[in-house]
Each structure stands twice: as structure tokens, then as C-alpha cells.
Amino acid sequence: MVESFNWKNIFLKDLDFGIALEIGMRTVIMFALVLIFLRSTGKKGVRQLSIFEVAIIIALGSAAGDPMLSGESAILPSVLVFLVILLVYRVITFFAAKYQKVENILEGVPMYIIENGRFTMNEQGDANFAQDEFFAEMRVQGIEHVGQVRTAVLETNGQVSFLFFEDEDVKPGLPIYPKVYQKKTNKITATGLYACTHCAEVLRLTQQEACSRCQKEEWVAAISDKRVK
């Protein structure tokens, strides 16, 4: 017969008021130390963090976690860990500012995603490129199709920078809104302008054929609407 749960043991175990007070004090102290450290790095928000800086924060969380909960872990060793992390951070950022190669290794480099109204070929081979997420970012910016965009760059902080065509220069392009994009097909039954769903190349097709740029065979009817400003 399965014994009933001991809810007191699950939620409290040996916790008493004194231990709870100590945990509270440890948490406040460690939280304050983490805030002080983050302020010392000069960063203002998460959107400005690179992968390197996220790794630093994870290391901070690991160092801060044990003293918050464990009465057997002293706070001063964690402070020492914080100081070492800060020193390493300062040294690495110094060399990153001085040497471009070091900065590229730590921060990455901006990646061109769209040029002249179509996808660049390099991002399609990148396993980290998520087309659905990128389309969502474009829709947030009021973009209806790829032909409205002259250049799109994925920055090292995860943001995307866009340069747009003037209205008179907008090209027929790959639609990015789901209802239209989902009409993609591998069978061309009517003559018209079609956009390759892989590279956004636009061709006038009379029958099914492979894209002349990427050799894929999935198409959707191109649209040429101007941006709504």
C-alpha cells in the first residue's frame, strides 16, 4: 500500500523560523551583489547582452545560488568568485576592444539576411537561422513581403536592422504573412510572377521548374504591394 504524502516534509522539512530568516538574509545579500556586479559591467538591459555576457550571468547565478539556500556555504567565497568573474570579464572585454578577431569570437559578426529584395544564400545554410522567427520580426516592422526590403542585417545582439526600398523601387517579393505564404506549391498551373520560398528569387513562370538561383522547386505567388507607413 502506497503511503500518503507527507506534505509538511515536502514543503518545510526541517525549516524553522531561524533558518528561513537566514535564507532570506542570504538571498537579499546575494541578490544585491549580483546587481552590483551587473551595474559594474555597464550594461543596461538584456537586449544588449551577447552570448559571452549571458555566460557570465549564468556563472553568477551558479555562484550566487548555493549561499542563498545552503547554510553550509559561506558568502565570502561567492564574493571571491564574483571578483574573479569580474576580473576575467574586464580582461576579455579589454582585448575584445583592442583586437577585432577577439571581438568577433566573443560577440559574433552581423549577418546579412536580405540583400536587394531577396535572401542571401549564406543564411539558408545556417542551422541557427529560423525563417518563421525572422518573418515574425519582419511583420512587427510592418513588412508585407521581402521585395520591400533593400537590406536586412541580423545584429550580434539578436536585433534585426532593416533598410527599405523607396515606394517606386519596391520589387515583387516573397509574401511573409501566413495565409498568403501557406499557398506555396510545387505545381505551377498559371503564368505569373512567383517567389521561391527558399531564397525569395522572383521569376515569371509558365510551368513548374527549379529556381535558377538555389535549385529549389517550391513557389508562392509574388506580391508587389508598397509599405504602409
TrEMBL record:
<protein>
    <submittedName>
        <fullName>Uncharacterized membrane protein YcaP, DUF421 family</fullName>
    </submittedName>
</protein>
<feature type="domain" description="YetF C-terminal">
    <location>
        <begin position="98"/>
        <end position="169"/>
    </location>
</feature>
<keyword id="KW-1003">Cell membrane</keyword>
<keyword id="KW-1133">Transmembrane helix</keyword>
<dbReference type="Pfam" id="PF04239">
    <property type="entry name" value="DUF421"/>
</dbReference>
<dbReference type="InterPro" id="IPR007353">
    <property type="entry name" value="DUF421"/>
</dbReference>
<dbReference type="InterPro" id="IPR023090">
    <property type="entry name" value="UPF0702_alpha/beta_dom_sf"/>
</dbReference>
<keyword id="KW-0812">Transmembrane</keyword>
<comment type="similarity">
    <text>Belongs to the UPF0702 family.</text>
</comment>
<feature type="transmembrane region" description="Helical">
    <location>
        <begin position="17"/>
        <end position="38"/>
    </location>
</feature>
<keyword id="KW-0472">Membrane</keyword>
<feature type="transmembrane region" description="Helical">
    <location>
        <begin position="75"/>
        <end position="97"/>
    </location>
</feature>
<dbReference type="GO" id="GO:0005886">
    <property type="term" value="C:plasma membrane"/>
</dbReference>
<feature type="transmembrane region" description="Helical">
    <location>
        <begin position="50"/>
        <end position="69"/>
    </location>
</feature>
